[in-house]
Design a protein that fits this description.
One of its GO terms (molecular function) is transmembrane transporter activity. The chain is built from 15 helices and 2 strands. With 334 residues, it is mostly helical. The protein has one domain: ABC transporter involved in vitamin B12 uptake, BtuC. The longest helix has 27 residues. The protein is globular, with a radius of gyration of 22 Å.
C-alpha cells in the first residue's frame, strides 16, 4: 500500500471513530470498572442460585468494608505517585494497641479509638516524611515498616490474642445493623468513600494530589509543596487505617496478632483494579470502592461456585495483571 493510501485509510470515518473510542476509553476508566463489576455481578447471579440473595449481598458488602476503607486512604497515596505496602501490618498494630488500651482504660474503647486514629496518622505520616525528605522510594520505606509493625504487634501481644472486650453500644455502632438490615461496617465504608471523594475532588489538597502525581516538576513550578502533599496523603491513609482498626476491635470484641497479615495485597489490588494509575496523577475513590467490590465478588464467587480456595489468589493476581496491562495501554494511547 502506498503512503498516500495509508494516509487516506487513516483519515477515513472508521479510523476517526476508532480514535474517538480509544480517547473515550482512556478518559472513562471509572465507567469501565463499573461496567466490569456489573458484568461480573450478572454472571455470578446467573451461575449460582445463592449469590443474588439479600443475605449473601449484605455479607459480601460487610466483608469488603475493611478493604474498602483502607483502599480509600491508599488511593491518595497512589494518585500522589507513591505506594504503601504497610497498611495491613499497621492495621494489626493499631488494632492490638486499641484492644490493649481499652482493657487498660477499663473498657473505655472510645478513648482508645481516638488514640489509634491519631497514632495511625502519625505513623503513616512518618512513612511520608522518610520517603520525601530522605528520598527513599516509598516501596522500600513501607516494606521496611511492614516488618517493623508486624514485629511490634508480636512484641506487644507476646503472640497472644486479646478477646472478651465488652461494650455493646460501641459494638452496635461499628458492627450492628442500621434499621436491623444494613451492616454498620457498610455505613462506615460509605462514609469513608464520601469523605475521600470530597477531599479529593472539592478541596485544594485534592487538586494538589492529582497535580503532584501527574507531573511533580510542573506542580513544583506552580508553587505546590509536593513533599507536603505526599506526606498528607500518607496521613489520610493512616487515619483510615486507624478507623478500620477500632471497627475490627469492636466487631470481633478483640484482636488476633495475625490481624491484617497480607491485607495490603488486597488493598493494592482494589486501588489498581479501580482505575488508579500505577504512576500517579489519576484515580477516584468511587473506582477504588468498585475495585474492592470486584475483589469481594471474586472471593465470594469462588466459594459459591465450589471452586477450590487455592485458585482465589490466582484469580486475584490475574485481575491485577490485567488492570496493570490496561493502565499501561491506556497511557500509551493517550
Amino acid at each position: 500500500m502506498s503512503e498516500a493510501n495509508v494516509t487516506m485509510a487513516a483519515s477515513t470515518p472508521q479510523a476517526a471513530l476508532g480514535r474517538k473510542l480509544v480517547a473515550a476509553a482512556a478518559n472513562s476508566r471509572e465507567l469501565s470498572v463499573i461496567l466490569a463489576a456489573l458484568a461480573m455481578f450478572v454472571a455470578l447471579s446467573l451461575s449460582t442460585d445463592t449469590f443474588f440473595t439479600e443475605l449473601n449481598l449484605l455479607n459480601l458488602l460487610r466483608q469488603i468494608s475493611v478493604i474498602g476503607i483502607l483502599a480509600v486512604g491508599s488511593t491518595f497515596i497512589f494518585i500522589s505517585g507513591e505506594i504503601d505496602l504497610s497498611v495491613g501490618a499497621l492495621l494489626g498494630l493499631l488494632a492490638m494497641i486499641c484492644a490493649a488500651l481499652a482493657i487498660k482504660m477499663e473498657g473505655n474503647i472510645y478513648g482508645a479509638a481516638l488514640v489509634v486514629v491519631a497514632l495511625g496518622a502519625i505513623l503513616s505520616g512518618i512513612n511520608g516524611v522518610i520517603t520525601t525528605k530522605l528520598r527513599i522510594p516509598s516501596f522500600i520505606t513501607t516494606l521496611g515498616m511492614l516488618s517493623i509493625y508486624s514485629g511490634a504487634t508480636l512484641v506487644l501481644s507476646k503472640g497472644m490474642p486479646i478477646s472478651g472486650l465488652q461494650n455493646d453500644l460501641f459494638r452496635s455502632l461499628v458492627a450492628g445493623r442500621l434499621f436491623g438490615v444494613v451492616p454498620a461496617q457498610v455505613i462506615w465504608m460509605v462514609a469513608a468513600g464520601i469523605f475521600g471523594t470530597y477531599l479529593l475532588l472539592f478541596t485544594r489538597f485534592g487538586y494538589n494530589v492529582f497535580a503532584t502525581g501527574g507531573n511533580k516538576n510542573a506542580a513544583k513550578a506552580v508553587g505546590i509543596n509536593t513533599d507536603r502533599v505526599k506526606i498528607l496523603a500518607f496521613v489520610v491513609s493512616g487515619i483510615m487505617v486507624g478507623v478500620t482498626s477500632f471497627i475490627l476491635v469492636g466487631w470481633f470484641r478483640g484482636v488476633d496478632p495475625q490481624t491484617g497479615n497480607g491485607l495490603e495485597l488486597s488493598v493494592i489490588a482494589a486501588v489498581i483494579i479501580g482505575g488508579t494509575g500505577l504512576f500517579g496523577g489519576q484515580g477516584s475513590v468511587l473506582g477504588t470502592l468498585v475495585g474492592a467490590l470486584i475483589i469481594g465478588m471474586i472471593s465470594n464467587g469462588t466459594v459459591l461456585l465450589g471452586v477450590d480456595s487455592y485458585y482465589e489468589p490466582v484469580a486475584h493476581g490475574t485481575v491485577i495483571l490485567l488492570a496493570v496491562i490496561i493502565d499501561i495501554w491506556v497511557r500509551r494511547q493517550r
